[in-house]
Design brief:
The chain has four helices and eleven strands. With 207 residues, it is an alpha+beta fold. It folds into two domains: 1-14 and 181-207; 26-175, Sandwich (Jelly Rolls).
Length: 207
């Protein structure tokens, strides 16, 4: 194989690898009838049981509000969420629910984040608790600074809704990072193997 052919092969495989990366959506779960978690929104209060509802949100912002019905479905719809499981629960009340959002975010040390919330939340990036206001509150806007390392870090946002209407959760500027599909991992290994074999063949001919 010529040097040009090798470059074409590597470029084509790299393009396929990039295309096999999953969308960087915000993933969320909801547990109902949990007054403890709803009034103390910390990671330690996220249940270990199967959530009542799971959903995702395309984009880089979380922006939910409740209107007149104060239901799970109304809240999720306001933020453009796609319900993955638990559609039968959407007519249920938001009261005494706890939410858990997870994913990976690209961050810079010293970056600030602002969350609007009613009621409480805890926002963690990597090992750094960025915002910690877990208890019930009227609508509040909280701005804090991330002091962890720069790079791609896992995040967790725990939100609790208790004590009746209204409900609100807003946080923007999340530079989300996609995760490779399983097929991408196999493709990456195959690409490295092919490049290695071609390089070895070229080296043998030159010897």
């Amino acid at each position: 194989m010529t040097r040009l052919g090798l470059r074409v092969l590597v470029g084509a495989l790299a393009g396929l690898l990039v295309g096999a990366t999953a969308n960087a959506d915000i993933t969320g779960s909801i547990w109902e009838s949990d007054p403890t978690g709803a009034s103390d929104a910390t990671p330690g209060n996220v249940p270990g049981t199967t959530p009542n509802v799971t959903f995702d949100i395309p984009g880089t912002a979380i922006n939910f509000t409740s209107g007149g019905s104060y239901t799970i479905g109304e809240f999720l719809s306001s933020g453009g969420a796609t319900v993955l499981t638990g559609a039968s629960e959407l007519g249920n009340t938001l009261d005494n629910t706890i939410f858990n959002f997870t994913g990976t975010v690209s961050v810079t040390s010293g970056e600030t984040f602002t969350a609007g919330h009613d009621d409480g939340l805890t926002f963690i990036i990597g090992g750094d608790t960025v915002i910690s206001t877990p208890g019930p509150t009227g609508f509040a806007s909280t701005t804090e600074t991330y002091t962890g390392p720069t790079g791609n870090e896992p995040y967790q946002l725990v939100y609790g809704e208790c004590c009746g209407s209204p409900a609100a959760l807003e946080i923007s500027g999340l530079a989300l990072v996609g995760t490779p599909e399983p097929s991408a991992v196999v493709l990456g290994f195959t690409m490295m193997l092919l490049v290695g074999l071609v390089a070895r063949k070229r080296f043998a001919k030159a010897a």
